[in-house]
Amino acid sequence: MSRVVVTGLGAVSACGLGADVLIDATQAGRSGVKPIHFDDLDAQRVKTAACLSEADLGEVLGEKPHRMREPVAEYALAAAREAVAQAGLTEEHFGDRCGVSIGSGFGGGQTLNINYLKLGREGSMRLDPMSVPKIMNNAAASWVSMEFGATGPALCLATACSSGSQSIGMGYQMIASGQVDRCLAGGSEACLESGVFRVWELLRVMTAEQNRPFSKDRNGMILGEGAGVLVLESLESAKARGATILCELVGFGTNSDAGDLLRPDPKRAAACMRMALKSAGMTPADIGYVNAHGTGTVANDVNEVTALRDVFGPALDGLDVSATKPIHGHALGAAGALEMIVAIGALRRQSVPPTINFTEVDPKIDLNPVANVAKPKPLEAVMSNSLAFGGINATLIAKAYAPS
Amino acid sequence: MVEPSEITPERPLEELDIQSADFVMILMAIEEKYGAYVSVDNELTDVVTVQDLLNLAISKIEAHQAAEA
Q1: What is the pLDDT of residues A365-400, one digit of tens each?
Q2: Which residues of A84-98 are buried (b: 16+ CB within 10 A; e: fewer)?
Q3: How many alpha carbons fall within 13 Å on the CB side of residue B47?
Q4: Is A37 considered catalytic here?
Q5: Nearest-CB residue to B41 (from A202, A263, A297)
């Protein structure tokens, strides 16, 4: 098994453009949540989301939007370009030995929404003839492979909120097993469209107020968008080209509840974390920080804390846990990738980002997360969880790189 | 289907076989009629009886009407 290292990070999020911008925002507790308005909705109940600013959106989409690309593909491309530039990859590093693994929950939500509205209002047969290649879920992964000439396996996992984490995990496995030398891995989501937003309202898991994971007065999640991409490489190939190593990816676990589409099972989430620890050759005591799935719904809070307590035992009281979704929103298929970047940021800066908007410990779960301000501390290893609808769990573990 | 004659304020919703998917329908109806948004979250975890649900709906509707006024 090859050791797998991270040599590049790229992010597009409500916090701005760039992985460092995202890490800065999470460390400072600066939220990208903004007012959002949809003209198509005659009554909008939830009025905020972690959306890109107009200026950032303009920069990512360009003056004249690409005819064949949805925002979901553009976000992924922007994040991938940043990660590739940081890693210092050039043409000879792609080809068959480089894979792409970029998930998305919704795929091209914008074109789908525009088409449906037009069809409903006008009964129009004149829809975007490029709709199919724009909507298809794998468009972002395919555009990234084309941009760099990465002709190895290209995957697109559509596993809702675990898409990003599982995609990174698949990239990790492909490299560890020797199938490829490197992989551009992460997730992308651009689903802040009227029809999509309305069905999230109808599911009633969004808060009309502030997002407060683990807080007694939590009342739901806030939707987000963006993309996160990591350059993963075998240690050998990174060393061979003299790359700067940001950290080592050491553990991946994934499983399913096979229980209920919406109600999570804490035993399965705990098993997933244990699987990641086992693959990393670690014990719970080795983990210094957990970036929780932490959506801010009561269902996730109870599930995730029960699972964490199962895995970490009484030591959970001394473990630093936080949820950064109040800062970058719940970016669904991009969430796991953005949060892994946030966790790697914590490791690199030796500082745990806070759960902002936290007011009071909830006796129901009795978790005291790192609240409202960052906590500097020595960190050797960090964990990031994604626990998706559909009962799909994924856990990643990164640690500081130490040449052996 | 719930038999309307069986619905009394003190009855637990569970006894009436009203489950989480039904809450989503009930809350959608409240939103359509009164414009109040109730998330399936914290507040709903304390709801046991029909009257609890009514109390929550009334407080949300009043808050919505106050915000609109």
Answers
A1: 999 999 999 999 999 999 999 999 999 999 999 999
A2: bebbebeeebbeebb
A3: 22
A4: no
A5: A297
- A132 burial level (CB within 10 Å; 0-12, 13-18, 19+): exposed
Which CATH number, 3.40.50.280, 3.40.47.10, 3.30.1360.170, 3.40.50.1240, labels domain A4-240?
A: 3.40.47.10
Q: Is A202 on the interface with B (CB under 8 A)?
A: yes
A219 touches chain B (CB under 8 A): yes
* Å between A298 CA and nearest CA of chain B: 6
Angle (CA) A291 A185 A280, round 5°: 55
pTM recorded for the entire structure: 0.96
Helix, strand, coil percent values for chain A (each to nearest 5): 40, 20, 40
**CATH code for the domain in which residue B56 is found:** 1.10.1200.10
**Residue from B42, B59, B64 to probe the interface with A (highest A Cβ count within 10 Å):** B42
User: Taking CB atoms and an 8 Å limit, are B39 and A205 in contact across chains?
Assistant: yes
State the Cα angle at A333 between A72 and A383, rounded to 5°: 135
Tell me the pLDDT tens digit for each residue of A248-281: 999 999 999 999 888 899 999 999 999 999 999 9
Q: pLDDT band for position B42 (50/70/90)? A: confident
CA-based nearest residue to A250, from A271, A276, A285: A276
**CATH 3.40.47.10 at A251-399, yes or no:** yes
Cβ neighbours for A246, distance < 8 A, ≥ 6 positions apart: A5, A6, A7, A8, A9, A344, A348, A401
Of B24, B31, B42, the CB nearest to A217: B42
The single residue of A93, A156, A293, A328 carrying the catalytic annotation is A293
Q: Show the domain range for B42.
A: 10-68
Interchain contact A199–B (C-beta under 8 A)? no
Helix (H), strand (E) at residue A71: helix A71-87
Residue A76: count other Cβ atoms within 10 Å of its Cβ: 37
Query: What is the rounded distance in angstroms from the CA atom of residue A141 to the CA atom of residue A127?
Result: 24
Is A330 an annotated catalytic residue? Answer: yes
Question: Which is catalytic among the residues A156, A161, A191, A272?
Answer: A161
Q: What is the pLDDT of residues A308-364, one digit of tens each?
A: 999 999 999 999 999 999 999 999 999 999 999 999 999 999 999 999 999 999 999
Which residue in the set A43, A46, A298 is minimally distant from B42, CB to CB? A298
> Other C-beta atoms within 10 Å of A192: how many?
23
Please compute Rg for chain B using Cα positions.
12
